[in-house]
Structures are given as C-alpha cells and as structure tokens.
Amino acid sequence: MAGLVAWMGERCSCVRVDVLWHNEVSLRMNRRAGFVQVAERLPYVEMEWRRPG
Q1: What is the pTM of this model?
Q2: 48-52: long-range pairs with CB below 8 Å, 24+
C-alpha cells in the first residue's frame, strides 16, 4: 500500500474510492494509507486521499 500511495503522490492530486460500509478491514487499510471518509452512500462509504501540500 505504501508503494501505491507514493505512486499516487507523484501522479494524482486526489484519489477517491468506494468501500462497502461493513468491510472494516478495507476501511482500516485505507485510513492507514491516508484516506478520509467524505460521504456515505449506502452500501458504500466514499473515501478520498489528497496529496499533501
């Protein structure tokens, strides 16, 4: 996951993912990678990562 975040940081200013609301493992993994929840559209939680700075 660290390699993916590094790749995103070089190429993207913002990345969004949709995760099923009950998939705690994926939610935790994305939070550790720097994603934050921006919306909830059941059955999904929308998460976003933004390049620092």
Answers
A1: 0.82
A2: 48/14, 48/15, 48/16, 48/17, 49/5, 49/8, 49/14, 49/15, 49/16, 49/17, 50/13, 50/14, 51/8, 51/9, 51/12, 51/13, 51/14, 52/9
Q: Please say if the pLDDT value at position 10 is more than 80.
A: yes
Token pair in block for residue 50: 């933004």
Domain ranges of the chain: 2-50
| Strands (DSSP E) found in the chain | 14-20, 36-41, 44-50
Please tell me whether residue 4 adopts helix, strand or coil conformation.
helix
Greater pLDDT, 38 or 7: 38
Would you state the pLDDT for residue 47? 97
